[in-house]
Amino acid sequence: MNIFRFVLTIALVVVSHCTFAQNAKVKGIITDDLNNFVEGAVVSLKGTTYTATTDKNGLFQMENVPVGDYTVEVTAENHTPYSQAIKVTGAETDLGFLNTTTSLSMAEESQDNIPTVSLSDTDVKESSTQSVSGVLNASRDAFNAAASFTFSAARFKVRGYDNDNNVTYMNGVPMTDLVSGNSMFYLWGGLNDVTRNRESFTGLTASGFAFGGIGGGTFLDTRASKQRKQLQASFALSNRAYENRAMVTYGTGLLKGGWAFAGSLSRRWSDEGYVPGTYYSGWSYFLAGEKILNTDHSISLTAFGTPTERGKSSPAMQEMYDLAGSNYYNPSWGYQNGEKRNASVNISHQPTVILSHDWKINNLSTLKSSFGYTFGENINTGLDWYNAPDPRPDFYRKLPSYIDDPAVAQMVADQLRNNETLRQIQWDDLYEINLNSFETIQNANGITGSTYSGKRSKYILEERVADSRKMHISTNYNASFSDNTQFSAGASFMKQKTDNFKRVKDLLGGEFYVDINQYAEQDFADSLNAIQNDANNPNRILKEGDKFGYNYTSDIIQISAWLQNQWKFDRIDVFGAVQISQTSYKRIGNVKNGLFQNNSFGESKTQNFVNYAVKGGATYKLNGRNYLFMNVAQMTRAPFFENAFVSARTRNQYVPGLTEERIFSTEGGYLLRAPKVKARAVVYYTQFSNQTNTVSFYHSDYRNFVNYSITDIDKRHVGTELALDYTLGKGFSTSMVLALGQYYYSSRPNATISVDNTSELLANDETVYAKNFYVGGTPQDAFTLGFNYRAKKFWFVNLNFNYYNNSYLDFNPARRTEAAVDLVDQTTTQWDNIVTQEKLDSEFTIDFFGGKSWKLNNYFKSMKRNNFLVLNVGVSNILNNKDQITGGYEQLRYDYVERNPDSFKPKYFYAFGTTYFVNLILRMN
Amino acid sequence: MNIKMRNLLAVIALMATVFISSCRKDDFDTPPAGGSDPALIANTTIADLKAGYVAGNFDSIDTDIIIAGVVIADDKSGNFYKTIVLQDSTGGIAIRIDISDYYTKYPVGRRVFVKCKGLWLGDYNELIQLGGYVDNSNPSQPSVEPIPYTLVDNYLIPGVYNLTVNPKLVTINQVLADPDFYQNTLIQLNQVEFADADTGKTYADMILQQSRNLVVKNCSGGSIELRSSNFANFGGDNVPNGNGSLVSVFSVFGSDAQLYIRDVNDVAMDTTRCAGNPPPPGAGVNETFSSQTSGSDISLAGWSNTAVVGNRYWRAASFSGDTYAQATAFGSSLPNMESWLITPAFDLATADTLSFRSSWGFFVHNGLSVWISTDYDGVNFASATWTQLTCTLAVQADGQYVWIPSGNVPLTSFSGNSAHIGFKYSGDGTTNTTTWRIDDVVVK
Known about the structure:
By secondary structure, chain A is mainly beta. Chain B is mostly beta strands. Chain B folds into 3 domains: 46-158, CATH 2.40.50; 168-271, CATH 2.40.50; 285-443, Jelly Rolls. In chain B, the strands form 5 sheets. Chain B has an 8-stranded mixed β-sheet with strand order 1-6-7-4-3-2-5-10. In chain B, strands 18, 20, 21, 23, 26, 27 and 29 form a 7-stranded antiparallel β-sheet that branches.
């Protein structure tokens, strides 16, 4: 729950006595979330003619209001319209403080302004979850605001948790990809206007919507009746992932007959983003309709989609960044006939439809039910090649570091430094090779004696497609059986099927490609079948649009039920919640892989997990301003499908010893809610046990994918979160947020290593000596100090000073095995270089954010309704710090021959230098 | 309301303009196929470049020498590794580059210009090579290192494709007499064959995973070695046991001459071996066809699979895990079909009894007969004399797919050290379409 509601509850203590008078005086004070008194706010009682306007102290007063129940409505310039049920009783009803929110508030606009960071793709693990929109649980808590906005540039993860510990729901439907457990933020990217109605809870607190993850949850309410009644158009300029964003949103509000409609259309695009070779081209559409049938029932339908195509950047070794003279070097593009073309492109369009029904059973209980369906393809493109030189410009054999002779290495370095073409993909070369590659395929398409001749492409652009169909049905019951209990219960059923396959996108000048496994061809040259990706259709001739390579379906069902009760007493609030769920999945092989003929085609065994989760907590109310709380949770969780198979691409083989994950988490802290000071101090402790993770990467010597299945991963996340908001007065305020954490591996995991083209395991259950290694990919410590000024004339500025510390690189488990250091002397630097985890530098940045709004009615007196023009400007990383590594990884490939960790150096991602975001919004009510 | 509508329309029009103007082109222009010669002129012949070189010297080239030649060997089959062999009208030279699968860019038949300035001329045990630099880490054995991947384009400028280099027709004695002249050029030897001891071998040693040297002989006693890499995609193929022509790149290793083929198309040895020396007969025959791939034509070392009339061969088929040979005219449009499956030669002195099994499918005619020849040379079917053998074959009454043993067929009435058994299928595509099968052919 946010502060705003909370303050309201406190403020709405109606102090009155029963009198015999029929009419009463109603008064109150309108304040906002910045603790300003709101002047000129119009306060009215719905359905009556009673209105009042506030003075400079925010005070309003209405005379002669008949006793009874009303809904008070407050509208004010630059503030979100606000309404609340009230009871007018005595001669004078004092509503106390009515706390509205500024529509120009930081938290809201910051959602538009989240720096979009280039997203990390590891060599292969391009999960379908890359989001550009970033984290969004920006409720008005200073800590959450900092975590989701300020810290996002540094890829800060709250409590070091992976994305799968946080669930985002839209109208009751979890927007989660069941394959990976990640929230699919990209599904509604660009629909900022219609996803503003949100509520977040963090950590282990109780929520009436769902059980949630241990990181909490976010609930988006996009129902048409909840959309503002206005026409809003905005245009934004930026130099981040995209350069331009245009958006129009219209909401009808509640119409006669109980109907409400809302629509939004937006486009985000740039020919080139911040990183060279990246581009963006995305549309977003949204339509919602709602019918309030009667006081008890309403039905709402929401449909939206975001067809998006974006050229991506890939991480690179520091050697390449240095040669290119920029930490924004991007190896994934090259010139084709003088134009930049990107080989790594993400193309997605996965429309979602949500039908929901709200039923107010009686004054005490509600039942909310939803049906959701999401479908469509998420595609990542990349180069594939057949018996041809590696086309990647940063392939290690092309680099100076690969050459022993220093003078020659220097020549290679000079060449790469001076010739941009050599640092990028040479498309023209690929075309020339394909155009001159005439070959005849024997026994083409599996027909003995049949031949097929033509230009056989040596290089193609492939699409790695995840085509999903996900259905969700759920219902949630909420009831207050008494004044001090709140009961919630829910049940849900989710089913997801995702077809995963490769598809030929572009033959790059050639005429065909053949569906065979080139590595197998080398080693099993005599076996006609082993080399076949699809032994049922051998030697298949491929054209653009044909599926090839792997082809399997993940079939997942998740059923869950939960219930929760909250008790509120004078001094203490307690709650308890329990959830039980069943997850079952299987892999369905759609092709018979020539190397795994016995276990690649058809269905795998079904894995079944029954899991429980319990949590509970108590809040002790010292007084209305000081609270102490403590929550505890314990749960088990099924391993995610993407981690359950040794190599889902090729076969139905589960990771040996696949087991469920166990999580224990507890948090406790202190909350202060004073008029000028808001503070939160939390300590938390979370233990993850028995996690399973599967990652794979392309090994150029094996010419195929190598898979690491890591089991028995135990991780401990402990830390402290401090947030302080202090109102200095006269429009000045300051905020301070500090996150100190330690996220580390608390035991030694086991690694099983396999290759996609042999059933032999390269390593079986090998111990990874990684105890007390740090969890990478996030700063463990983050700090920000913000200064805000909000002027009466409707403008504000905000300056944040940020500091990040203790960030570690994700490590390669293979380098921490006995085999990796075999025969290496433990006292040498070589030993240290192999096993030590890389710590990244601490970083300091400064961000600016400001805005102003104009009430157009003040300039155009003829306007009848209130129209506003709003300008927001954000400048991130003002100091233009270009050395801030936000992520990356040690390459999973390891040089077992030389035992030299520098043979395959780590790859990094850098945070953008100075970027801006300027947004001009026109709101017409 | 009207004002509102107008506002709305204005906004929509503005947005539409913005959206439309932001469309991104997605179709990339395709570059030309390439394959034209660069504006370079070769100022030195390969022979001249090599002329002054003294083995073991390792010279850097610091003048603007440009040579041009046609690629005569690439790494497509894997027999050459990181070495391009380039030949002009005066000679050939090996160029070392640090790229695998370079054949995609420098295939056999493509003209390549080499800007030699900055490269090194050296030798690998007297085989002259151009490379990027010299590794002196072992001073007693310096070596020319491949041109680094990234630098190759500075030196090698490719031109037109599909040029033909005709191999020089030479004899073994000629090339051995002047190895420097022939070094790294394409030569052709006629009327040569693999030495008797090597005919049962594969090109490379795939068991120990190493290269193998095989002896190639002519009929007058001259011999030379053919070396093949286990990384070659033909490394596991059997060498032919006939006589014929061999195209190869002539190479040296110290004082030894070595030949390298590009792929098996360079070997055409399917005629009679040197006069009076037919392929050595085996002690007998024992063939279950289990090594054959169902659906493929029978292809067994020493066996002949000959389509005498029509274009159909004996083919492997299998049922219940058993693989056998079968022939059929069914489904063809052949007016006549005659196909022979002939065993390797055997010595009648040590092997004089034949046995096999036969069966039929979809019976309409008796199409199988069994023959013997004592003068078949393994290649020329027509010139051999064939005598039909009387033996028990499957008949219609036996029923479909029932295997009928032939029993022991005595061959004692024949003599000679090079006999062959021939299984003859005859039929046609219209009426005589029975499928005939044989299996477990044993001569002992």
